[in-house]
Every structure is written in structure tokens, then in C-alpha cells.
Amino acid sequence: MRIEAAVRDDEPIILFDNVFKSFGDFQVLKGISLSIAAGERVVICGPSGSGKSTLIRCINGLESYDAGHIRVAGLALGTDDASRRAVRGKAGMVFQQFNLFPHLTVLENLMLGPMRARGMNRAAAEEIARRYLDRVRIPEQADKYPRQLSGGQQQRVAIARSLCMEPGIMLFDEPTSALDPEMINEVLEVMAELAGTGMTMLCVTHEMGFARRVADRIMFMDHGEIVETAPPERFFSAPESQRCRDFLQKILNH
Amino acid sequence: MRKAFILAALALVLTGCSGNWGWYVVNPTTPSGYNNVRFLLSGLQYTILLSATAISISIVVGLLVALPGLSSNRGLRWASRTYVELVRAVPILVLVLWVYYGLPQITGLTIGVFWAGVFALALSDSAFQAEIFRAGIQSIARGQYEAAYSISLNYRDTMRYVILPQAIRRILPAIGNQIVYMLKMSSLVSVIGMQELTRKANELVVTEYRPLEIYTFLVLEYLVLILIVSAGVRWLERRMRTDER
């Protein structure tokens, strides 16, 4: 995997320093500090409303933040469009609702970023689109429209669309939460495969099996704070905080 | 009630057929009727040209007014809102008169009837187009912007390749409505002497004294034009319907 030249090996690829964010009176992020090394795979979990989606959306500038500092891939992320666009080129995002462009075919969905943001010509963009469509194992769907695909296939197209930007970081915001149960695995499979390539991955998910198998670290968030960070085996066997134990109890024993 | 209405209508038609109608004025098989029909139809090109030019301009201006109306900048939103509210409040006929007779007194430039008509129609319609575009753009889910931004597209490309193509599919019926409306409103430009369909009919009535037949002919001219436009809009809708669920 290519790693940005501007990043020194010892500099974290994602760095949050005391980041605060509020929606009106509601404080979503209360002084988040974190550091993620290149190639690390981190799963973020926590109860709904804990701020985990907001945190991951801050990384590529989809949410602004009120105070603190964020650095991504060696770039300072401000609230201006220029720094946001620069960071977005380094960090791809996969959404819960896929958010494919319904008026474009699968191939066109994939080619849009390379052509309009990376300045590639049509032939180069198509080559890269087909390569990543292969990678998510649905090359035969290239000329279909999103609505003609199953949820699992749509999410895999969405992953391929992000990969076409060749980012060093992939962000996943509950990528399997909108899927029917029988389609969750095909998406997790693709993500696990991606994790094996050295891609830096941040994933908000409740799929604890996936977290156990793939994550280097699991972060537990509650009420806008990172309560606990631990490698999977320790996280599941010996969680330190009561809040984390309560949460695991709820999601593992159903 | 309904029966009585139908009977009355039927009676009217029958008495009409029994000799009060004088279709000879527009009977193309007679030399004078043929000339009259040719005279009436000679307004067609101006009606079409006037409406088509006005609608093209108003769609572009409408979009340019709608976009700042959706901005996060309050000043831009306010400017867009003011334009829509002011322009929308002026009756088209009043605007036609004001542009043709009033405006030259400020600018000192005389303006031809055609461009005065185009200007008045386009200005008036642009406020409605702006509202249509605003509604269409607002109907596109937030996630579409986020996905576009996430693949590093800038605002312009996001609008051009992601948001507007979807919004335009949704507002096509409303724009079709507006085109039909403009075609009809172009008849108002006859008051400043534009030689379009309505003006031609008025002039013929003055010489032939046959308002019933000539205006009926005029009604049919507009009907045919508008049916063609409607069919065109439907065709466009069908062609663009790739993403419907």
C-alpha cells in the first residue's frame, strides 16, 4: 500500500488533540484525543448517541469541530474547503446508507472521483474502476444501476468507489447496519480482505466478531468521550470500565 | 345538474352548426380563406421563438437565482429571496408594458418589441423557475452531497454531476408546466405589437368581423402547440427515467 510521502514513519496518520464539538447545546465530542498509526485497524463502538459517528465524520471534514486540532495524513484539517478537500483525497468514507449515485451506472459511480477529483482521463478512470470492482468481486455488475443491486452489492460498490481514490485511510460508518442479515458477511469479507492489505482502517460497527478478528485496537465511546481503548482480546475478556462492561453485556448476550 | 349542463352545451353546439358559424373565413379551399389561414399561421414562428428564447433564459437565470438561495451565507440567501418575492409579485402584462414603455425612459435605449417581450417573460418566469429548482435541489438527500464530497469533488462538480442531474429529473414535470404557461403568456406580448399568433388573430378580426371563428382557430393553434410540448416533455421524462425505484 502506498503511504503518503509527507508522513514520517513515526508520525501518526490520524491525530486528534483535545477536539470539542457541539450541536447547539448538546456536546457531542468532549475533548477527544487519539492517535492512530499508519496501517492500524481500529474499531470504534459504543451506545447510540455516544459521538462515534461524529468522530469518524470529523476525520474527513464532513463535520466541522469547535476546538482542538486534527491532523490527517500529515495535513492539518481546518474548517476551510481547501484543507477538507485535501484530506478527503487521503481518507475514503463508506456510509451506512451506501449513498451511491442513483442516476449513474456502477462504473460511472466509480469513475466520477478519478475523473473529476484526480484529473484522470476516461480510459485511465475506467481501468481503475474495473480493477477495484474486481477487488470487491462484482465485475459483472459494472453497467447496472445501483437500484438493480442487492444491499450487500451496493455497499461493496460504495467501498470500491472510495478505493478508486486510492486513499491511505478508509473510514467506515456502520457499514453493515442497513443490510439484511444474510448480506452482512459479504461486506465484512471485503473489509477483512482490505484490512490485510495494510490500509489504515477506522470502523464504527457493532459487529463484534469482525472486531475480534480484524481490529488491532477497539475504542469504546460513551457520552462524547473515549472511555477505553484496548486490543480485542483484552477488550472482550477484561474490560476496565463499568460502562464498557454494561455495553458488552447488552450487545453480546442477545 | 350535470345533465342540464350537457344539454345546454349540446344546444349551443347545435345552434352553432345551424348557420351562425361562418367558417368560410378560415376555409383553406377558398382563396380568401387560404390567405387568412396563412396570415394567422404567420404568427406561429414568433410565438415559438419568443417563448423558446424566454424559457431558455429563465431556466438559466432561475438556476442562478436558486443556488445562492440554498447557500449557508445569509446575505446570499436574502438576495435570492428578495429577487423571487419582488419579481413574482409583478403581473406579466404589467411587466411587458413597463419594460416596453417604461424602461427606455430610464435607459434611454429603445428596445424592440421582440426583446422587450423576451425580457419581460424571462424575468417573470425566472422567479418561478428559481423556486422549482430550489425545491428540486432540496429534495436530494444529504447523503448524496456527503458521498460526493467524500470522493473529493468540489461544490461545482458535486452540483453538476451529482445533485443537478437528479434534481432535474424530479422537476421535469414542473418545468414542463412552466413551458406551457410561458407559451400561453406569450400572447400578452401582442399588446405592444409583437406579430405573434394572438396579434395576428386580433388584426384579422378587425378586417373580417368574425371573432368567433378566428378566435376559435386561435384557441386550436395554442392547443396544438401545447400538446406537442407536452408530448416532448413526457418523452424527455421517459428517457431520463433510469434511476426510479
From TrEMBL, chain A:
One of its GO terms (molecular function) is ABC-type amino acid transporter activity. Signal peptide: none annotated. Residues 14-248 form the ABC transporter domain. Pfam families: ABC_tran. It comes from the Bacteria. Keywords: ATP-binding, Nucleotide-binding, Transport. InterPro entries: AAA+_ATPase (IPR003593), ABC_ATPase_HisP-typ (IPR030679), ABC_transporter-like_ATP-bd (IPR003439), ABC_transporter-like_CS (IPR017871), MetN_ABC_transporter-like (IPR050086), P-loop_NTPase (IPR027417). Belongs to the ABC transporter superfamily. This is Amino acid ABC transporter ATP-binding protein. It comes from Aquibium carbonis.
From TrEMBL, chain B:
The keyword Cell membrane applies. It is a multi-pass membrane protein. GO terms for cellular component: ATP-binding cassette (ABC) transporter complex. It comes from the Bacteria. It is found in: Cell inner membrane; Cell membrane. GO terms for biological process: amino acid transport. Keywords: Amino-acid transport, Cell membrane, Membrane, Transmembrane, Transmembrane helix, Transport. The keyword Phosphoprotein does not apply. InterPro entries: AA_ABC_transptr_permease_3TM (IPR010065), ArtM/GltK/GlnP/TcyL/YhdX-like (IPR043429), MetI-like (IPR000515), MetI-like_sf (IPR035906). GO terms for molecular function: transmembrane transporter activity. Gene3D superfamilies: MetI-like. The chain crosses the membrane at residues 43-70, 82-100, 106-124, 171-194, 214-236. Residues 44-233 form the ABC transmembrane type-1 domain. The complex is composed of two ATP-binding proteins (GltL), two transmembrane proteins (GltJ and GltK) and a solute-binding protein (GltI). Part of the ABC transporter complex GltIJKL involved in glutamate and aspartate uptake. Probably responsible for the translocation of the substrate across the membrane. NCBIfam families: HEQRo_perm_3TM. Belongs to the binding-protein-dependent transport system permease family. HisMQ subfamily. This is Glutamate/aspartate import permease protein GltK. It comes from Aquibium carbonis.
